[in-house]
Amino acid sequence: MGSPIFLLGCSSAGVGYQAKEESGVTVPSPEHLGPPKSLRILEVTAAPGSPAPAGPAGPRVRSAPTGRQDLEQAGTSLPEELFPRGTAWGQVCGAGLERWELPEGNLLCPGRRWRGGGGGFTSSALSLPSQSACGNRTMKIVGGSPAPERRWPWQVSLRIGYSHFCGGSLITSRWVLSAAHCILRYADYMVQLGDRMLDGSSEQALMVPVQKIIIHKDFEAASLTHDLALLRLAYSVNFSSYIQPVCLPGKSLTVKAGMLCWVTGWGQLSENGSSQMAVELQESQLRIIHFNQCNGMLQNKLSTSTNLVKMGSICGYSAQGKDACQGDSGGPLVCEYNETWIQVGVVSWGIGCGRQGYPGVYTEVGYHRDWIFRHLSLATCLDSATFLILSLCLVLSLHILGTS
């Protein structure tokens, strides 16, 4: 069994955050930051529009998208993330990052750091949060049963304005993982965290604008392969018992057929098109089924010889009719390993909702681990480089003014 990956606020050695209600990071208020600048989306290669049906009945996309944006976010902000190195922490592209066991560090950072040594591009006004390993949850026990409000603290709701349309999972203090097919032709995305109620009525609920979206470059709308997107929040969030990141799988972690895992979301409670979104966060336990068995079940039901489930996907099934549904897209499929919760899948597509003999199909997180990690590293280092360029321009301008 492989170790889970701890990113940007989790320790790769499993030593890190101890969850507290208030962490030590100072987070700017939305009023201070203002709205995110002209949103644009990276790596969109498929033509806009709804995913085409695959097979006679066609996979019903969980959120029934109507299109995707072809804009990308401009606007820059001060880098705020820190990367773990063993049990130590350092600034992005700071001293020593190029010696980490990261190809991104070797590639990006030697040309983007102060040659005089020092600690990278930022002045480190950011304090380290109180640290705990990802994939942990603190549940309040009431009458012998865990209360659901802290059960899945990484679950988030993706909003257009304030209307829920997809799920997602918090994987760092500033990044959310979701499905590519969730990205519609809008620019005012929001993410709600910290509340199991869809209306965000609790005191712990937090609404954060989305600043940047990265869609997998190989995403295909017709087959929903590589159905993955990363969303960067406008600012980092504080971790608490209500808001925690989920772990990502390590390279050697194997998700075995027969394992019981959980899918969560606020999607429709039934396949009926008139069904409303759930008011409270729903959870369903599913059994992981083998890739070939998943294809075989769908081929049998749809009377086709086509392999509808492609590499990079994982399947879950419940004989009791438990399943994800419309509005659950992008949400996490998580499994527990040694009391640590690891996200193994992202809700992608299925035939109907909870139909007998029809498994749900999820984008496999472990298969796309390198893509996720590469873009988190790249985005943060590029932000650092942008900040450096702006700083050098300012210094040069002041020098010119002083000598004129």
TrEMBL record:
<dbReference type="InterPro" id="IPR033116">
    <property type="entry name" value="TRYPSIN_SER"/>
</dbReference>
<dbReference type="InterPro" id="IPR001254">
    <property type="entry name" value="Trypsin_dom"/>
</dbReference>
<keyword id="KW-0378">Hydrolase</keyword>
<protein>
    <recommendedName>
        <fullName>Peptidase S1 domain-containing protein</fullName>
    </recommendedName>
</protein>
<dbReference type="GO" id="GO:0006508">
    <property type="term" value="P:proteolysis"/>
</dbReference>
<keyword id="KW-0720">Serine protease</keyword>
<dbReference type="InterPro" id="IPR009003">
    <property type="entry name" value="Peptidase_S1_PA"/>
</dbReference>
<dbReference type="InterPro" id="IPR018114">
    <property type="entry name" value="TRYPSIN_HIS"/>
</dbReference>
<feature type="domain" description="Peptidase S1">
    <location>
        <begin position="141"/>
        <end position="377"/>
    </location>
</feature>
<keyword id="KW-0732">Signal</keyword>
<feature type="region of interest" description="Disordered">
    <location>
        <begin position="47"/>
        <end position="68"/>
    </location>
</feature>
<dbReference type="Pfam" id="PF00089">
    <property type="entry name" value="Trypsin"/>
</dbReference>
<dbReference type="InterPro" id="IPR001314">
    <property type="entry name" value="Peptidase_S1A"/>
</dbReference>
<keyword id="KW-0325">Glycoprotein</keyword>
<dbReference type="InterPro" id="IPR043504">
    <property type="entry name" value="Peptidase_S1_PA_chymotrypsin"/>
</dbReference>
<keyword id="KW-1015">Disulfide bond</keyword>
<keyword id="KW-0645">Protease</keyword>
<dbReference type="GO" id="GO:0004252">
    <property type="term" value="F:serine-type endopeptidase activity"/>
</dbReference>
